[in-house]
Amino acid sequence: METASGDPDVRRLALGSTPGTVPLARDFTRSALQDWGWLPAATADRRAAAEDVLLVVSELVTNACLHAEGPESLRVLRLADVLRLEVVDRGAGQPAPRTPHRAGRPGGHGMFIVQRLCRAWGIERTPGTPGKTVWAELAAPA
Predict the structure, then answer these.
(1) Residue 69, Cβ neighbours under 10 Å: how many?
(2) What pLDDT was estimated at residue 1?
(3) pLDDT over threshold 80, residue 126
(4) Helices marked H in 36-102 — which ranges?
(5) Whether the Cβ atoms of residue 80 and residue 139 lie closer than 8 Å to each other
């Protein structure tokens, strides 16, 4: 596990197109949540908050694998009242929840789940640089 600039509130993991990228990202995030006291969870609400974070990481990394030429990195940031997840990928596309959402159909649920579970999410691009950062913020457990 790598911390960015020695900051204990920022974790960064280099990713690639290797098999097992999604479980690797989940394990990395789970370890950060353990270090920050989110896990093991003392209450059902805290456990649900941690599980939401792990689900969103899975969805963001899976989306990068399937639709954005693969993920390059994952950053997990602990801020005052939110946890921010950032997945950098090489794709030019624009992720969006499938509209209308059809719960009974396979596929297309990733960004819908992210939208439902997160306080906010979005995309950041650097002009002249390929790819993008897809970020999501979840409320810290009370």
Answers:
(1) 16
(2) 46
(3) yes
(4) 44-67
(5) no
Closest C-alpha among 87, 108, 106, 83 to residue 98: 108
**Better pLDDT: 59 or 94:** 59
Question: What is the torsional sign of CA 41, 58, 1, 20?
Answer: positive
On whether the CB atoms of residues 25 and 12 are closer than 8 A, the answer is no
Interatomic CA distance for residues 15 and 12, integer angstroms: 10
Taking the model in full, what pTM does it have?
Answer: 0.88
Tokens found for residue 71: 């993920």
Cα separation, 9 vs 25, in Å, equals: 17
CB 120 within 8 A of CB 137: yes
Tokens linked to 72: 């390059």
Residue 80 φ then ψ, to 5°: -55, -55
